[in-house]
């Protein structure tokens, strides 16, 4: 384990098994064209601050401590992995945490939402705003109004993506990952893939699978990415952010049965589906070695199942 990771873990006082920080689990499925696939189990880093959320918060929390901030403020939606992670991390280290939540109608439904209930139980102050207001979250005047309302705070952007988050995500890959030809990950705000792009070797190509419709994230990624050996695969969003289909749910359940690896339906599940579909379509050259990055997000399964039950659709049958 890298010394910086040890320092952070001692600082944040998380309880977990350190060896899981760099565990690659090879899939036993026999793929055509002698292709091999492994998945980096970043989801196992910690039960509440897992995957890319651990990586993104690592240097941000250290910076907040260095600058003597007492409050963390961030943004997120109803089932945000980021909101849950910041709430728990803040509780562990004595930060006051404030979550600006998209959707003012959610204020009266906290008890019905497992993510928001968890965040509130961790001590996070939840502030619900309209979707129109939420679009202003990066505006200077909007942030100034928040400071007038809540006092001084350390700002962590929606999804956690900033320069310090990229620095953390650059540590996802290890020297042992040099054997892989392709590194694949899901994309939300573009921070995780930017860090991976910056750390891959010349012979490796990064494939990103956006959870949102469109390819507008290219410009966001180019802000931080220092290499050009990457590509976005945009046709596996299953209708857009937070959208799922019975086909995707069936795939997640089958994948868990075969590999005992839980996939979240918002990010990693769609990416893994996409990679396996591309293998079937002969996208990858013969004997390619593919590494999938599991970015965590398992906490969101409970909330997704609630939505699926309300729509009388099949649920995700994973118990973690």
UniProtKB/TrEMBL annotation:
Q: Which residues form the active site?
A: 80 (nucleophile)
What SUPFAM superfamilies does the annotation carry? Tryptophan synthase beta subunit-like PLP-dependent enzymes
| Keywords linked to the UniProt accession | Pyridoxal phosphate
User: Its domain of life?
Assistant: Bacteria
Pfam families xref list? PALP (PF00291)
PANTHER family, A to Z: 1-AMINOCYCLOPROPANE-1-CARBOXYLATE DEAMINASE-RELATED (PTHR43780:SF2)
Its name, as the record gives it, is: 1-aminocyclopropane-1-carboxylate deaminase/D-cysteine desulfhydrase
């Amino acid at each position: 384990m890298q010394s910086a990771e040890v320092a952070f873990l001692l600082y944040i006082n998380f309880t977990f098994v350190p060896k899981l920080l760099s565990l690659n689990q090879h899939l036993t499925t026999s793929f055509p064209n002698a292709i091999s696939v492994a998945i980096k189990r970043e989801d196992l880093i910690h039960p509440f601050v897992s995957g890319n959320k651990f990586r993104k918060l690592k240097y941000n929390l250290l910076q907040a401590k260095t600058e003597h901030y007492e409050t963390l403020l961030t943004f997120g939606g109803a089932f945000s992995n980021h909101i849950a992670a910041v709430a728990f991390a803040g509780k562990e280290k004595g930060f006051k945490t404030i979550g600006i939540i998209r959707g003012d109608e959610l204020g009266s439904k906290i008890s019905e939402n497992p993510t928001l209930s968890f965040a509130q139980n961790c001590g996070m102050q939840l502030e619900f705003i309209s979707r129109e207001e939420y679009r202003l979250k990066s505006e200077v005047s909007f942030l100034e109004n928040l400071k007038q309302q809540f006092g001084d705070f350390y700002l962590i952007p929606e999804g956690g993506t900033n320069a310090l988050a990229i620095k953390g995500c650059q540590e996802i890959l290890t020297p042992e990952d040099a054997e892989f030809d392709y590194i694949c990950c899901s994309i939300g705000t573009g921070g995780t893939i930017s860090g991976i792009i910056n750390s891959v070797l010349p012979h490796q190509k990064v494939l990103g699978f956006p959870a949102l419709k469109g390819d507008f994230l290219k410009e966001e990624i180019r802000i931080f990415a220092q290499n050009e050996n990457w590509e976005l695969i945009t046709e596996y969003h299953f209708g857009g952010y937070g959208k799922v289909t019975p086909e995707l749910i069936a795939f997640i359940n089958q994948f868990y049965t075969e590999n005992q690896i839980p996939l979240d339906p918002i990010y990693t599940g769609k990416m893994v589906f996409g990679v396996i579909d591309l293998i079937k379509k002969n996208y990858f050259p013969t004997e390619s070695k593919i590494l999938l990055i599991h970015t965590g997000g398992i906490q969101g399964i409970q909330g997704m199942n609630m939505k699926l039950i309300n729509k009388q659709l099949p649920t995700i049958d994973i118990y973690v």
